[in-house]
Specification:
10 helices; 8-stranded mixed beta sheet; 7-stranded mixed beta sheet; alpha/beta; FAD/NAD(P)-binding domain; 18 strands; single chain; globular; 30% strand
Length: 383
C-alpha cells in the first residue's frame, strides 16, 4: 500500500488549528508532512477601524502560546475580574495575587492573534493549503478529496469549519460586540455583569488603556435594535445596563451581533479522525472559556501524539482514545459552567435571582469556595 500523502492533516486554520499545528511541528521529524488546510488571514488595510472582536486568553493559554513562539505583541492584562448581578446585592472579585500568578489572563485582538499564529506556522515548514477543508472519510488512511484531486493522511484533525453533532442548546440570545471608551477606566480590571437578558462583559482592550471590548448578551430582537441605534442612544442603553463603575461609556465604531448556541460532540470521530476546538464544542461566551478550552484541546492532543510522530507507522488510534478519556472531565466541567451560568442568572424567578446574589456574596467571602472555580477559569484541567 502506498504511503499516505501526509502524516497529519489539520482541517481549519483558525487559532486552535494553527496552535495545534505548531505544537505538532515541534515534535515532527519532517514538519512538511503535516498539512494545515484553510484560508490565510486576510490582509488588513492601514488605518482600519478598531475590530471589536477581542479574545480573553487565560493564564494557561498564554503560557501555551508563548511556548509556541506565537504570543501577539499587543495585549491588555486582566489582573482582576469583578462579577456582579444587576438589581441585586452580592458581588465577587477574583484577583491574580490570591492565585499567585502575575495576571489572570490577557485580551488580544482576534486579528492580531491569528496573524501571529499563522506567521509562526509559516516559519515551521508545515505544508499550507489555502482552500476550504474537505469532509474527511475515516479509515486507515483517512481520505481527503481536495479541489485538485484525492489525498490521504494517517490522521485528520478537525479544528473548525464543521459544527459538532451531539448536545445542542439555543439560548435565544445574541452577543452584541462593540468597542467602548470609558471616562474613568480601571486598569487591569474586567467586568462580568449578569442582567435579566444575559451576561454583559467589559474587557480591557489592547488598543488603548481607556478602551473596553464589550460582549453584551441580549434577546435577538434587542440585539438588532441595539446594532442600529445612534451612538448616543446605544451609550445610554449600555450605561443603564452596566452602571457607572467606569464613568461615562461611549461606543467607538460599529456594533455587531452574533447568535449564541451550544453545540458539543465527541472528540473521537472514527478511525484516524479527531476533533478539537470549535469542531468539538462551541460555547456560550460567558467567562470567555471557548477559545481557552480549544487551546487546551490542542495542547494536550499535541502532547499525546508526540510518541507517534517519532514513529508514524505505529497505530495511532489507541493514543486518540486515551486523549479523549483524559479530556472528558475538563470538557464536561467547562461546558457545565458556561451552559448553567447564563441560564441561571437570566431566570425570571425572584427566589433564584436572590439566591444567585447570595451565591456571589458567598464566593467573595469564602476563599475555599472561590478559589477552585477561579483556578479552573484560570487554566482549566491540564492533566
Amino acid at each position: 500500500m502506498a504511503s499516505p500523502t501526509y502524516d497529519i492533516a489539520i482541517l481549519g486554520s483558525g487559532p486552535v488549528g494553527c496552535a495545534l499545528a505548531l505544537g505538532l511541528a515541534d515534535a515532527a521529524p519532517d514538519p512538511a508532512r503535516i498539512v494545515l488546510m484553510g484560508p490565510a488571514p486576510a490582509p488588513r488595510a492601514a488605518g482600519q477601524a478598531i475590530d471589536p472582536r477581542a479574545l480573553a486568553l487565560n493564564h494557561g493559554s498564554r503560557r501555551f502560546l508563548e511556548s509556541l513562539g506565537a504570543w501577539p505583541e499587543h495585549t491588555a492584562d486582566i489582573l482582576t475580574v469583578h462579577v456582579s448581578q444587576a438589581g441585586h446585592l452580592g458581588r465577587t472579585l477574583i484577583d491574580q495575587a490570591e492565585l499567585g500568578v502575575p495576571r489572570l489572563g490577557c485580551v488580544a485582538a482576534y486579528d492580531d492573534l491569528l496573524e501571529t499564529l499563522y506567521a509562526a506556522v509559516r516559519r515551521t515548514g508545515i505544508t499550507l493549503l489555502a482552500e476550504r477543508p474537505p469532509r474527511p472519510r475515516a479509515g486507515a488512511p483517512v481520505r481527503l478529496h481536495l479541489s485538485d484531486g484525492p489525498r490521504s493522511a494517517h490522521l485528520a484533525l478537525l479544528s473548525d469549519g464543521a459544527r459538532p453533532q451531539g448536545l445542542q442548546r439555543e439560548y435565544d440570545q445574541h452577543a452584541v460586540l462593540a468597542t467602548v471608551r470609558a471616562a474613568a477606566p480601571w486598569p487591569g480590571r474586567a467586568f462580568e455583569r449578569f442582567t435579566r437578558t444575559g451576561p454583559l462583559a467589559l474587557l480591557p482592550h489592547p488598543a488603548a488603556p481607556d478602551l473596553y471590548s464589550l460582549v453584551w448578551c441580549v434577546p435577538p430582537a434587542r440585539a438588532q435594535a441595539l446594532r442600529h441605534l445612534p451612538h448616543a442612544d446605544f451609550d445610554t442603553a449600555l450605561q443603564a445596563a452596566f452602571g457607572h463603575r467606569l464613568g461615562r461609556l461611549q461606543r467607538v465604531g460599529e456594533a455587531y451581533a452574533f447568535p449564541l448556541s451550544l453545540h458539543a460532540g465527541p472528540n473521537l470521530l472514527g478511525q484516524g479522525l479527531a476533533a478539537v476546538g470549535n469542531a468539538a464544542q462551541t460555547l456560550h461566551p460567558v467567562a470567555g472559556q471557548g477559545l481557552n478550552l480549544g487551546l487546551r484541546d490542542a495542547a494536550q492532543l499535541a502532547q499525546a501524539l508526540r510518541p507517534w510522530l517519532a514513529a508514524p507507522g505505529e497505530p495511532v488510534q489507541p493514543l486518540l482514545e486515551r486523549h479523549t478519556r483524559r479530556r472528558r472531565a475538563d470538557r464536561a466541567l467547562t461546558l457545565g459552567i458556561t451552559d448553567t451560568l447564563p441560564r441561571l442568572f437570566a431566570t425570571a424567578n425572584p427566589l433564584v435571582r436572590h439566591a444567585c446574589g447570595l451565591g456571589l456574596a458567598a464566593l467573595d467571602l469564602v476563599p475555599a469556595l472561590r478559589k477552585p472555580l477561579a483556578r479552573h477559569l484560570l487554566q482549566g484541567q491540564r492533566l
